[in-house]
Amino acid sequence: MTDHRRPAGAMTAPAGPFLFRDRPGRGLEVAFTSVDAGNLAFHVSGTPAADIEDSQRDASTAGGDGGAEDSRERVRASRRGVEVSLGVPPGRTEYLTQVHSARVVSAAGRGWGESPVAEEADALVSPTGRDPLAIMVADCVPVVFASRRSVEYPAAGGRDGRPDASGRGAGGVDPLSGPTAVAHAGRRGLLDGILQNTVEKMRREGSGHEPGDIQAWIGPAICGRCYEVPEQMRRDGTAQIPATHSRTVWGTPALDLPAGAQAVLESLGVTVHRSPVCTREDPRVFSHRRDPGRGRFIGFVWRREEGWGTQQIEGSEG
């Protein structure tokens, strides 16, 4: 991960299933998985596109939907593996059924293991900042958020019901103690306002309104050199977010979604950290355009509570 104010350089992958992993505040972790974590989405097969026809034929020959169930079990195992690596209780992470909308919902406090049918939305906010949140992508822009709590809001309650010290002005206390969030910013969602809606909801839930009170990590996504679109689509996108205007390396119209996401967030006073990794160019992450149907990786945020997990960060590039 590289701060947008520094020149983009090579990203060094930590050991294990993460392309990027960091701890920006006390107990707070943000991460983006790599292909080594496996496919983390139930709605894709996890099978290379070239092999899909053969795997479907094998499943039908076997008599039943065993292939589909095998694929779902692989996803379950992959999700549990990521949680173990992060020190999250298995099944505790909250996912969404992503539909390329601008809808934002609050965390329900129930992970995928307890509530396997996820709500339809494209951003998820944890008012307490303690819920493990995940967002799935394979070219679209994944954004992970953390925040300082507004001085106008009381500190969130602790696990025992007593208030925690948090927010600015509490000596020696992590400032990123406010709401957290994740968002899926595909072309449609980005243009329809998914990031603005996420920031607005975070502030309603207690995030500060001052510049820098909210921080965002823009993860690996297809870059403006690779995201080819029809000319009319580029004109429409550029009219709404000028920073998205781009051209592919082969000279055709394109949109730069990560640049557009950065421009939107900075206009809202959000501090942005942006990955230089392009999903289409880098085989360490899944890409729908490069390899349709192969899988999804996730952007992840959670706050480690006392007694939950002891694993240390294996490495990061920050």
Explain how this protein is built.
With about 325 residues, this protein is α+β, with helices and mostly antiparallel strands. It has a single domain (about 15-305), classed as CNF1/YfiH-like putative cysteine hydrolases, CATH 3.60.140.10. It is about 20% helix and about 20% strand. It is built from six helices and 13 strands. The strands form three sheets. Strands 1-12-9-7-8-5-4 form a seven-stranded mixed beta sheet. The radius of gyration is 19 Å and the shape is globular. Residues about 1-15, about 50-65, about 160-175 and about 305-318 have low confidence and may be disordered. Keywords: Copper, Hydrolase, Metal-binding, Transferase, Zinc. It comes from Citricoccus alkalitolerans. Belongs to the purine nucleoside phosphorylase YfiH/LACC1 family. This is Polyphenol oxidase family protein. It holds the Pfam family Cu-oxidase_4.
Describe the structure concisely.
This is Polyphenol oxidase family protein. It is built from 6 helices and 13 strands.
Summary keywords:
318 residues, disordered C terminus, 6 helices, disordered N terminus, seven-stranded mixed β-sheet, 22% helix, four-stranded antiparallel β-sheet, alpha+beta, CNF1/YfiH-like putative cysteine hydrolases
